[in-house]
Amino acid sequence: MPAKGPVEARQxxxxxxxxxxxxxxxxxxxxxxxxxxxxxxxxxxRLRVYGPNELRAVAAxxxxxxxxxxxxxxxxxxxxxxxxxxxxxxxxxxxxHEGAAGWPLDAIVITAVVVLNAVLGWMQENKAAQxxxxxxxxxxATSSVLRDGAVARxxxxxxxxxxxxxxxxxxAVGADARLVQAAALKLLEAPLTGESExxxxxxxxxxxxxxxxxxxxxxxxxxxxxxGSGRAVVTATGMQTEMGGIATLLDSTPDALxxxxxxIAYPGKVLGIAALVIAAVVVATILLISDIQGVGxxxxxxxxxxxxxxxxxxxxxxxxxSVVLAMGVRRA
Length: 332
Known about the structure:
The protein is 50% helix and 14% strand.
């Protein structure tokens, strides 16, 4: 009876048992020929049944949500408050002086700045997303497989269980697979295991379950061939691979702020509260000691308070200029 140890304590993996059984039995179970691979029709049927060999992608945000995200910023809230105050003042002035109010230029200027900033941010994000998509299309991985006894180069997304991978130096491994044969085959498995050194592979069955980095007769999706050559029968594709297991864990792990983000957020929050308090005190003081003649003077003072609050934000220089410009337009 084997002694209890780390092997029993760790979480089971899909490729645990596959590394222990004989390759002849495994090929028979997967319905593949170790010399000729799968037939083209059989591979197409399996692809329809099991789906493409790709990790589950995060659902893209719709355009309207990405546009709204540009407005979710304290600076935008401050500018929105300034525009609302200016618009309310224009309305009351128009009612008090018929025909004298004209256009609400100050509110229009501030709103235009907010909208322009949101549009520019959305366009930049959209261009970045398009560039990433184009790069991903250009770097689509392909794999060499035996189909009907002939070597074919197919997109890695079309690999299916039972496919016979043909591995050579420089190839990216497109799916988890069990080695049929290996000739001085060495793989870089850092993306999966973190091991910086190349791993020498061996097609022989393992005598006992081993950790992921010690399954020498297995190759895994996301790794690369550094040296040598070999052939391997695909045992798992898509989210069933070891890389897919990591992706599942990432999906189920809630997002959390890093310690650095927490440290940065705290002084930012304190600075924002302090700026609002100072702006409120300044506005209240000016209203108390100044000779306020009407709603227009009150609005000017409120806009000054908003400009003080916005000025406390380092990236708020364009916004503060817009508020000052609005105040200048109002006085003119």
